[in-house]
Amino acid sequence: MPIITVEIFPGRTNDQKRRIAKRLTDSMVEICGAKPQAVHVLFTEVDPTDWAVAGELCSDRASEPAKSG
Question: Where does the 4-oxalocrotonate tautomerase-like domain start and stop, copy by copy (predicted)?
Answer without folding.
Answer: 2-61
